[in-house]
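pasting for the record
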Amino acid sequence: MGMLKASAMLTIDYLADHPEHIPELAARHYGQWAHLYPGETPADFENHLRTSAQKDAIPLTIVALVDGEPVGSAGLIAHDLESHPELSPWLANVHVAPAFRSRGIATTLIKRIIREASILGARTVYLFTTGSPDFYGRLGWRSILHETCQGVPITIMSRPIDQGLD
């Protein structure tokens, strides 16, 4: 796992402080996940991000910036699967631009979202993934259910807040 070049500065911040990046991030999210949300348009993805551009409340989104440019994001939302309204909150929309992957950015984003969930009083955070359960498992998440979403196999995972971040 290489780290960022010393000359590049990584900043993790609230999307609320960088709303100018919403259209670009929404386009990336749409490209990555639109197949899981039939009927949702690029404008819907943008509206979801605008709604989550807040602090100290769910939904919230954080953004990874390298030299001021958005390279990743992650969100904390109340519900992510209609099939499980009893599970809340959810880590969602973890995305890092391909050129910036394998540098620890996703891990940094996930740890920050867990801290935000803790501050907001959550005891457990949930997520679903279409293909990265091993990655999340290394970060303390455990598989709790296997289902399909729009015909795609998914793994639903949970992580207690109180097990620490490192």
